[in-house]
Design brief:
Elements lengths: L1 H24 L25 H4 L3 E4 L1 E3 L2 E12 L4 E5 L4 E6 L6 E2 L4 E6 L1 H32 L5 H27 L4 H6 L7 E5 L4 E6 L6 E2 L4 E6 L3 E9 H4 L7 E6 L5 E8 L9 E9 L10 E9 L3 E5 L4 E3 L2 E8 L2 E6 L1 E6 L2 E6 L6 E5 L1 H14 L3
Helix pairs in contact: 3-4
């Protein structure tokens, strides 16, 4: 009985000893070490290029500059409304003569069309009769003034002659103004014998090109009928629409560039920004006045409009200095111990410059030429080290 109890007590002791031996032989787990790229660990390794590479490197200090921002938008050429004239008749009649046709270049004051009109003949008759009556009434009034001064006629006679003179003069002036407004020269009427039929001649109010012709010989016309349209494309308008946030950056007087398809770029001033946004597109309509002496811009054609805005000075470097290494944008900084790749936070680009918001300071010398050589050397060093 005693031997059996002793054997039972030895078994747990042996199991404990075996467990202790296994614990001493076990090694603690090692932490895995992950390799990193040139910029993954933030480790700034100085690069020492050989003389051949060093000779190709160029550096430039980071400095404060205004970065130009270009805004582009589609535009459309339109006629300058000050350079458009519609020729209409102010009187009814029949076309007797046509002096120009579609496509003709005309000068200001050049005759375009002649219209025969009974109404015009009646007005001229009224003018001539009214002129004669006014002259007779004036002579009678002047004679009565002299007779009244000698107390030969009564005061009543003087007043009656004066009233008649003023009435006939007013009627004559009214008829003359009607003829003048129609473009009829009263000086020619005063010199003529008035034996021939008078024609109502319309002349060109501006110099330009006849782009519309709605009249032929023998055609009847009425007041307000449009017979010709003349345009001068020596100066045109270009319209474009800008988002509100972009339009706020510009003002009247700023210069823009107009580029037609297959044509040369033209510089023109911004002359109008709409004070109210478009209800549908929520954009601002802008207008440029473009000198178009050669006629390369055609009204109703589409063009590209560009405006450049420069904000306040910011820290910038040439855009050629930027590079990307393992998904990290940065640049190479010249130090006393060589060249170091520095990750940066970039901002706006324009005019060959790029804004640097974080990573370098004003005055730091940045590599602008030879960036690819330094990038190649940096990658080779990390490949050779097994990282």
């Amino acid at each position: 009985m005693t031997r059996r109890l002793t054997a039972i007590g030895i078994v747990p002791a042996l199991l404990w000893l075996l467990s202790a031996c296994n614990d001493q032989g076990a090694q603690p787990p090692q932490a895995a070490t992950n390799g990193g790229g040139p910029a993954a660990t933030g480790n700034r390794t100085a690069i020492h290029p050989p003389p051949a590479v060093q000779a190709r490197l160029r550096t430039e200090p980071a400095a404060l500059r205004a970065v130009p921002e270009q805004v582009t938008a589609p535009g459309e050429v339109a006629l300058d409304l000050k350079q458009v004239a519609k020729i209409t008749s102010r009187i009814g009649g029949q076309v007797e003569q046509i002096h120009v046709q579609l496509g003709d270049r005309v000068k200001q004051g050049q005759p375009l069309i002649a219209i025969g009109s009974l109404q015009l003949d009646q007005l001229i008759e009224e003018y001539l009769v009214g002129k004669a009556q006014a002259e007779v009434a004036e002579n009678g009034f002047r004679r009565t003034q002299k007779l009244r001064a000698d107390d030969i006629v009564t005061e009543r006679k003087l007043i009656e002659d004066k009233g008649l003179y003023l009435e006939t003069r007013a009627r004559f002036q009214h008829i003359r103004e009607k003829l003048t407004n129609m473009g009829v020269s009263t000086a020619e009427l005063d010199r003529g014998q008035h034996e021939e039929r008078h024609l109502y001649t319309l002349t060109a109010p501006i110099a330009g090109t006849v782009v519309t012709q709605n009249a032929v010989r023998g055609q009847g016309v009425g007041p307000g009928d449009e017979l010709f349209e003349i345009v001068d494309t020596g100066r045109v308008w270009v319209f474009a629409n800008l988002p509100i946030e972009q339009a706020r950056k510009f003002k009247e007087g700023d210069s823009g560039t107009i580029t037609p398809k297959g044509g040369e770029t033209v510089v023109a001033p911004l002359t109008y920004l709409a004070p109210v946004a478009d209800e549908t597109t929520r954009t601002i309509r802008v207008r440029f006045e473009v000198a178009n002496r050669t006629g390369q811009l055609k009204p109703r054609e589409y063009v590209e409009v560009a405006l450049v805005w420069s904000g306040p000075p910011v820290l910038t470097v040439p855009i050629t200095a930027m590079t990307t290494i393992e998904h990290t944008r940065g640049l190479f900084l010249e130090t006393g111990d060589g060249y170091t790749f520095v990750p940066v936070e970039a901002g706006r680009e324009g005019g060959g410059w790029i804004e640097i918001r974080r990573g370098v300071q004003e005055g730091d010398r940045i590599v602008t030429d030879g960036v690819f050589d330094l990038k190649t050397m940096l990658l080779k060093e990390h490949i050779g080290s097994g990282e």
